[in-house]
Structures are given as structure tokens and as C-alpha cells.
Amino acid sequence: MSVVGNDPVVSGLVASFARPGGNLTGFSILNVELTPKRLELLSELVPQAKVIAFLVNPNSPQTEPMMRDMHEAARVKGVSLPILKASSESEIDAAFASLAQLRAGALVIQGDPVFGDHREQLVELAARNAIPAIYARRPYAEVGGLISYGSSLIAIHSGIGTYVGKILNGAKPADLPVQQPTRFELVVNLKTAKALGLAVPPSILARADEVIE
């Protein structure tokens, strides 16, 4: 049983979504595929930003495909996309210190466990540097992050429980299709938006699953 952030077929983990084969099945949270959507949302929220930085973990196998997709999304949006790389507390500090020199008007944070471990540091630095940032998961917005968008981990964890039960009752992982998320969460922190002097467009508020005030 596994939860992966990118396409498990492309990664070679399974033969196909419908028939994974071998002894592995699980859930894909579409982390790579959803990253360009975060750029689109942030560009909609901060339309004046002509430079949107992308903070990545250089040690993640997902980073290269994410950067390819993000460069294309940035080209379509007509914005520059400088890449910032960090995998530790000190490197995150250094990445944020470079934002002013880059004249970045907004920041996309890669959905990566390293950044999840430094969630409060990222949110605090975004506030201190007055930089609008978008994150991959709801907990960022809950601790003061501006906006988050990603697959619902609650729904995925529920599905994992169902699959574990089936396997314990004798089902073979090879016969259980790899599941993709069907529920996605858009969370907006209006308190943070106000502190940044941002007016959240009605188009985003109408789509939000949760608005934190």
C-alpha cells in the first residue's frame, strides 16, 4: 500500500491504474499534476505579479517534472518563474532572502514533505516578507498561509482504510486499482489576505471549500 505524489505509471511503480500488477497498489495525490493549477490560482489572486517564484526541494524525484510543467504554465500566463531550491531550514531562509532581488510578486511552494516539516517557518517568512504564497495543503492555511489547493488527504486516508480492510480480508494488491483523488480543497485565509493588502477575487471565494476569517 502506497501514497505517491506523482503518476505511479510514469514512475514505473505500477503497470497501470486499473491493473497495477505486482504487489503494490494505493493512491496517487496528483501532486505534480496540480502544481500548475496553483500557479494559475496565485496569478488570479495576484494579477499584478509578473514574477512568481517557485520554491522546490532539489532532492525530490518529483521536482524535475514539476519544473517542466510549471515553466509551461508560466509561459502561458506570461510571467517569469525563477526557481528557488531549499531542503533545510537555513536554505529556506536564504531562498526567502532572495525574493526581493528577484522582484518576485508571489511564491508557489512545492508540495513536498520537507516543506511540510517546515510549515510554520514558511508561513512566518511569507508574512515577514509580505509575499503572497500558495501551498499544497490545508494545514498551511490553518496556521496563517494565504491560500492552499490540493487533494483532500482526509478522503485519501479514508480510502486507504478501505483498501487495508480489503487486503486483510484476502484481496490481492495487484487486483485493486490505483485510486486518484476525486475531492480537492481550496482554502483561503482572509485574515492573511487583509494583512497583505489583497482583495480576494469573488471568483476564488466562490470556489473555496473553506474561508478562514
Summarize the structure in words.
The protein is of the alpha/beta class. The chain has a single domain, classed as 3-Layer(aba) Sandwich (Rossmann fold), CATH 3.40.50.2300. 43% of the residues lie in helices and 16% in strands. The protein has 10 helices and 9 strands. The strands form 2 sheets. A 7-stranded mixed sheet has the order 4-3-5-6-7-8-9, with helices on both faces. It has a two-stranded parallel ribbon with strand order 1-2. Strand 6, helix 7 and strand 7 form a beta-alpha-beta unit. Helix 1 runs parallel beside helix 2 and helix 3 runs parallel beside helix 6. The radius of gyration is 18 Å and the shape is globular. The N and C termini lie far apart (38 Å).
Question: Which properties best describe this structure?
Answer:
213 residues, alpha/beta, Rossmann fold, seven-stranded mixed β-sheet, two-stranded parallel sheet, 10 helices, 9 strands, disordered N terminus
Strand content: 15-25%
Q: Which structural class should the secondary elements be placed in?
A: alpha/beta
CATH fold category name = Rossmann fold
Q: SSE order, as H and E?
A: EEHEHEHHEHHEHEHEHHE
Query: What's the CATH first level?
Result: Alpha Beta
Structural Rg = 18 Å
